[in-house]
Every structure is written in structure tokens, then in C-alpha cells.
Amino acid sequence: MNAILPTTPVQRKLMTMLLLTSGVVLLMTCTAFTAYDYLTFRRTTLQELSTVGRIIAANSTAALAFENSDDAEEILVALSTERHIVAAALYSDSGTLFSSYPPSLPADAFPSAPRDDGLRFESNAAVGFLPVIQQGDRRLGTFYLKSDLGALNERLRRYLLIALIVALVSLLVATLLSSVLQRQISVPILALTDAARAISTHGDYSVRVEHRSEDELGRLTDAFNQMLQRIEEQSRALQESEKDFRNVAETMPQIVWTADDRGRLDYHNQRWHDYAGAGTEPSGRTILHPEDYRRCLEQWRASVRTGARYEIEYRLRRASDGAYRWHIGRASPLKNSALRITRWIGTCTDIDDLKNAEARLLYTLSELRDRNRDLQDFAFVASHDLQEPLRKIRVFSDRLLSDTKGLLSTNQLDLLERSNKAAARLQTLIQDLLTYTNVHAAQRAMRPADLGVIVGEVIDDLQTSIEACNARLVVGALPSISCDATQMRRVFQNIIANAVKFRDARRPLVIDISAGMTHTDASVRCCEISIADNGIGMDPKYAESVFTLFKRLHSSDVYEGTGIGLSIVRRIVEHHSGSVHVVGRPGAGSTFVVVLPVDPVHALPASGS
Amino acid sequence: MGSLVPLQLLHAEPSREYQIKAAFLFNFAQFVEWPESGFVDATAPFTICVLGNDPFGSFLDVLVRDEQVRGRTVNIRRLKEIGAGRDCQILFVDRVEARRWRSVADQLRGRSILTVVDDNDIERDGGIIRFAMDSGKIRLVVNVDEARTSKLQISSKLLRSAQIVGGGKG
């Protein structure tokens, strides 16, 4: 059915179907009736012919038996009332023509001899040969009669005419009826079609189709309307959500854009126009820095192809001043429930200020590093070069002191000794400064070392001064850690020497050294070493400044020292990724707490160096 | 004009007129009905008698050979005098005997015998059926009164072909 009349409108199709069906039915009915009537009439004709023939045959027995041709003619003339009988004849038993009808017809118009009994149709005529029998079996001759089929043909013609008229009238009525009835089907379908076309042309989902019937078409119409209702609601919801998105997008401080699944831009917010200039097409070519364009295009194409989100930095030209400003561009695909990309959403964030600040910072940092290195070089070179003339001053002043013994006055000798001491102090200062600046310069490997052994060696070195003041040292168990042993020795030397120096003269000095294990916030295993004394103590407000270079709490007249020792301690401990601080009160002694990672490999790198 | 009898079968051929008359004689059996009392019994043959001089020769015998009339075989008898003709169903009276017809008729009165008289004389009383010649053709003249008296029913078809006399009672 689908191949018939594919382009014809439904209305015409329905009409054609109805008319074709009724036409075929009509044709078949008329044909059947005509054929039936034709056959019936033929049979009736034969029957009538048979009846007439039998009557005439029965009546003509005596005429034949007694050879009365007048009588025979008289009998045959009676056939004149039967209009359709065009010829009749009697044949004697021997087969010769005895009498014929109508009298006007010549003898050669009749069969020369009777044929087989029976009635049959010959060309355009019904012909019968009937036996003339008297008393059952005695055959006296044959009766011949011929009926033309004019009546039959006339009847057939009349029938065909009637059939034609009936068919024409029926078709006319069928046309009128079908043109009215087909509307039942075609009108709702056309209404649906018009509505569908209006929707697809104008996108107007508010169209509704009038409900006309309760049949399948009615239900189809209802379903169509419901579908439209739902689409309308959904498109409204979609518009709402789109509006919300636009509002959010317009509120954002970044440039926001969206693109369809094939990467064609379909939306960009007002920030774009503000930045790129009003009416500028949202295209990378017009706004991207020529050096960045190719890189960005490749990234974008790759992402559209693979569906991967990306983040890329590039420069965009600002329309107001023509300046290229650094932006960070991000894009993410939006996927539907089937994980197909439906849209891309992207932002461009201005990071130019940040980028500039970062550049400036890096520049300042490297500058600072250069200067620091110059300063260290200077300190090292200066300290090293200062030592040589200083040693000569000390050597010459010592020789002067021993050579002039007894020659100089007491006052002169005192001056010489004081100058000698000053030179010695200066030498110590220079050595300490060299040590301080050398902490980072000497990149020695960290090796596992027993802190107990190191502390023991330090106590041995300081034996003289410890005994001089009658001090007592209590040393607990100390752990092994990975460290630079030489530098670590200097840490303990400085702290113990500091305790000896600032002892309280009113009581004998006690120094308590102990250790425990602890953790930093980053879960690095550390050991915590406490060195507590019962010296003069200090004001807690100076707890931090004692570690500052050249910072002295007391004048060098009361306590000797360069003011570098604790600075060196802090510098070494920090070099080991550890920390050091001091707690104490005036007159109540001080406690130095040194925290060192057991394995400095895991420690954070020292910062700011 | 054809004949109802194949002529070549005949030995001693009678005249054409008597060939036709012989055929007529036999044909009368088809158009006339006899009462049961007209026969001796149910098996008795149908008898055609010829009184006087026989004009048919063997032609008539050949004609009725193997024929039947109402289930009865057909028999031909030739009579010298009327007294032997009581059992006949059809009695042909020739021209000579026809002149003495009155005495013959009296002897057969009341019997169901179809008397056929071969006599051209229209004035004479000629039995039930009379062969009459009219311009070369054989005409039949039927006396319906005589037929009724003899209790014979003559078919209307035969009457159509014949000239009817009598019939005073309709």
C-alpha cells in the first residue's frame, strides 16, 4: 500500500480509495447481474422455444401422419404470434421438408435435412429440432424452429444501459458521499499536518489542534496536543534555566561563552563586549595575541575532538587601549545522560596583574639572592683578609711585650697589654664571623652521629673553664641523628659556653642536658634536646633577640663575647631543618630547647637562603 | 410428397395411392382409442382386416412387421366375408364391398371396429372413415356419429386433418 500514490494528498487518496472501491463493487455487481440475467434469459428462451416447439410438434402429428400440408401450414402459421420465431418447418419421417413457415421464405432457407434432436444456440439464433411423436414412441417426423436472439440482445442492451445509468448515478452519489465522509478522516489529519508545519516553521508550541472525534484520530489529536503542552512547558523551563544561566554568566567578572557540540560559539556575555569592543564577533582571530593564536586553536580543536576539559594561558587584546592582557582560559564540556557532549562552556579570567606581580616578585627574589651572595663573599673575603694583618699586630705586640720587660713603666705596660687583648678579641670576632658565614658555604654531607659522643667531646674541650667555676654537668641519654658532626659540636659548645659564662656567682653552676622524641606538624620524627642551667636567667622579652647577630644583653665589660655565638647556633640548627628557642626568667636560669629531625632527608628545605 | 414407408422393401408393389392408404390405415391406430371391450383379451393382437379384394398386396404386411400398437402386436387378416371380421379393430372395405356397405354395416353395428371405406362417392354412407380423392390428394372424411356409436374416440388432431360429417349432437 505504501507505494501507491505516494505524493497524492490524503484527501484525494481517500476519495480515490472510496470511489475505486465502490466503482469496482458496482462494476462487479452489474456484471454479475447482467451475466446472470443473460444466462437466465438464454435458458428461458430455450425453455420457451422448447415449449412452443413441443406444442407445435404435438399438434402436427396428424398433419404429418396423414400428409395434410394445408393443416400443417395452418398449424405453423399460429407461430406468427411468437414474434421472435423467425422460421419453422416440419420434416417427414424420411427427412424431406414437408411444410415450412413463414410461407414467404424459400425452401433453401431451411436445413435440407433435420439434424440431431435438441435445442442449441447457433450464430445469433436459437435453433431446435424436436421429434414429432404420436402415442409415445411412434416417430412421425421432425419439427424445426429458429428463434432469433434479437430479444435477447435487445434485453442485454437494455440491461447494459440500465447498468450504466445505475453505475453513473451510484458513482455520482458515491462521489458526493465520499467527499463528505472522507472529511471525517482527512480534516483531523490535515489539521494535525497544518499544526505540525506551523510548529516546525515558526517554532510556535502554543498551537493546539481542535479535538473533533473520539476515535483513534481524536486520541492522536489529544496525544499531539499533550505532547505540545509538554514541549511548551519544557521549552519554557529551558528558557528559564537559560535565563538563569545568562544571569549568572552576566554577573560573573570573567568573560563567559558557550559553544555547541561541534565547537561553534553560540553565546558570550557582556564582559566580552566590554573587553573586546561592542559588536566584535566572538572569534579568537580578532582578539588573541598572534603568538598565542595557533597554540589556542590547536588546543581547542583537540578538546572538541576528545571531549577533554582544558586550561590554557593566553593574551587577549583589550579594545579600549589595544593592550594585550594575560588571561587564563578554561573550557569544560557539558554532557547529557548518554555521556555525549551537548555544549561547551568556557571562561576567560584576567590574570594579567597577577602575572605581572609574579614576574616582579621573581625578579626581586633573584636580585636579592645575588646581593646576598655578594654580601657573603664580601664578609668572607673581608674576614679572611683582616686576619693576616691582625695576627701580625698580635705577634709584634707579644714580642714587644717580652722584649721590653722591665724597660717600660707600669702604665706603658698596661697600655700594651690592653692593645694586645683588643687584637685577640678582634681575632675571635673575625673567626666567629667566618664561622657564621661558612655555615651554608660548607656543604658537608649529613652522616649519622651519636649526640652523646659529641656532647662528651665538647665537655672535654671545655674542661678547664668548667673546673674553674666548679660546675656540675648532668647528661642524660642522647639519640643518634643524621647531621654534620662538626657543626653540631659547635652548637653544643656555644650553648654550654654560654651557660658557663652567664653563671650565677652566688651558687655552683649545674647544667642538665636531656633528650626526648617528638613530631612536627608534618609528622617528621624529631628529637628534642633541652640544655637547662641555673645561671642568671633573662627577661623572657629577650628570648628571641638573643639569637640576633651582634645582640648583647650585657656590656662586654661584664661578660666577654662577640655576640655571634647564639646566632651561629640558630643558623646551624635551621640549616639542619630544626629550630631552637630559649625560655627563662631573670635569676632563675635559662633552658635552651633544640628540636632536630632525626633524618634531615625528610625535612623541609631551609627557606629564605 | 414423401411416403411413410420405404418403397424398395416391397415385392409386389401396389400403386402409389394404395401405398399411402396402407400407411394411413396403420396411422389410424395412433389416433384412435379403442375400449377394452373391443379386444378378446389383454394379449390379443391388434388386428387390421382387409375385406374383399386386397389392393395392398404384401406392402401392408411389410409395413406393420415388428410394429406394436399400445403394447399389442399388429396382425393383418384378409376376409372374404364380413362375418369373420368381428374381432378386427380396423376394417378396410374395398371399393367393391363398399357398394354393399349397408349390409356390412348392419352386421358390425355395436362393435368397436373402425371401419375405413375406400369410396369416392360422397353421397354414399361410408362407415366411420372414408378415403376420398380430391384433386390427386387423399382426403379423410370422418363420421363422428358412427364413431361415437362404435365407442371409438378419435383424436382431435385426426379430426383437424379430416372432413367431418354427422356430429348432430356436437
Q: Could you walk me through the main structural features you see in this protein, from its secondary elements to its overall organization?
A:
The complex is a heterodimer of chains A (609) and B (170). With 609 residues, chain A is an alpha+beta fold. Chain A is 51% helix and 20% strand. Chain A is built from 15 helices and 17 strands. Chain A has helices at 10-59, 61-65, 69-77, 150-181, 183-202, 216-251, 270-276, 284-287, 290-306, 352-403, 410-441, 451-461, 463-468, 485-501, 565-575; strands at 85-92, 97-101, 118-122, 125-134, 138-148, 255-260, 265-268, 310-317, 324-335, 341-350, 447-450, 472-475, 480-483, 510-519, 525-533, 579-584, 590-597. In chain A, the strands form 4 sheets. Chain A has a 5-stranded antiparallel β-sheet. In chain A, strands 7-6-10-9-8 form a 5-stranded antiparallel β-sheet, with helices on both faces. In chain A, helix 5 runs parallel beside helix 6, helix 11 (410-441) packs parallel to helix 15 (565-575) and helix 14 (485-501) runs antiparallel to helix 15 (565-575). By secondary structure, chain B is of the alpha/beta class. Chain B has one domain (7-165): Rossmann fold, CATH 3.40.50. Chain B has 6 helices and 10 strands. Chain B has helices at residues 16-31, 59-64, 95-99, 101-108, 144-149, 156-161, and strands at 32-33, 46-51, 68-69, 72-79, 90-93, 114-118, 129-134, 137-143, 153-154, 163-165. In chain B, a hairpin with a 2-residue loop joins strand 3 (68-69) and strand 4 (72-79). The longest helix of chain B has 16 residues, at 16-31. Residues 1-11 of chain B have low confidence and may be disordered. The A-B interface holds A 59, 61-63, 65-68, 71, 92-94, 96, 98, 134-135, 138, 140 and B 1-4, 6, 20, 24, 27, 30-31, 69-70, 137-138, 140, 155, 157-158, 160-162.
